[in-house]
Amino acid sequence: MTVDELLTGLYSEQGRQNPYPWYAGLHRLGPVSAVPARAEHRTVAAVAVGYDLVDRLLRDPEWTKQPPPGWEEQEILRAFQTSMMFVNPPEHTRMRHVFAHTFTPRRLDALRPVILRVVDDLLDRMADAGDTVVDFVADFAYPIPALVMAEFIGIPTAELAWYRERVERIDEFLDVAGKTPQRLAAANTAAQELRVFYRELLAHRRRAPTDDLLSGLVEALDAGGVELTEEELVSNLIVLFNASFVTTVYMFSNGLPLLLAHPETVAALPTDDALARGCVDEVLRLESPVHFLARAAPADTVLDGVPVAADDNVLIMIGAANRDPARFPDPDTFDPTRPGPPSLAFGVGLHFCLGAAVSRLEGRLALPRLLARFPALRVTETPTYSGSLFLRGIDELLVSTSG
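^ that's the sequence the OP posted. Answer follows.
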């Protein structure tokens, strides 16, 4: 099959539910393939699927993110382009320096009891529900990162349901096929509402500071101790909180069916921390929450025999790279003891996810406690994926806690 045929299949409903056969087809064409100028999906010059090439492009600071035309006129794009996740050095370096100090080993250790408290409370609620079918996403996968990050950042828990609705509108716009006028308008409104929300929250912290991240940032901002404007701070908070919990929700919801298909792993997981680490890493490799990124060529270049002109975008397929048979033998098999390179689920290089350690810790602590409490847990019906090709995950997963 040609690149255009494979991309057409990938963008179909069938491909959105199971992109991996299409990724395998792209791997058979090589680590990178040119997209013909007249192809239906000529929004990028090439698609990169090889692990080594994807790793190299993500690590190369010369391969940058290009702002979309007219971004200044759209609220959601202004939020993106004034946050560290979407900008290039030196702005990225300046912003990341501020937030990197918040994700220290000391703060990570301080989150451990918070995670355990949240997990045990959720498990108690699931147990109190009795012999019934529950939505694993609503009752477990979503509340863990939302409650943990809310406490870490300083967002009132009563606002989380309201917050999730706005985040979902933004995520829909982020999808490869999400750039419709309707989704843009919805994302703009969501970004505007979140900006007002954070401005009010920051003003409240000025009047009544606590020991959360927001209070610390406000204090540093007002003292001239950080190189951020308040609007940049708000943009980063919008993007940071979104990225920090949506990917973790999908780590849990995508990962549970994988784990439950391996009873021997389920039985051993509650008492084996090394296995728990391996399971989290393998879930992230096999079912990466983030599948696509794009980078622009800094100059005319050739990638493994494929010419790419300066400023042309290359679609970087993380979900495909994590199943590269050249780097992961038998790549579609779940193997938590698998040797080899780390997954690219959280990226590498300049834009490596700041919250990766928090997400991994949540998985490593929560999954063993879940399966220790409910060893007969089972999925009651075939799950449906979100349909997004950017953030791919299960939004509803019905499970029985009693088998």
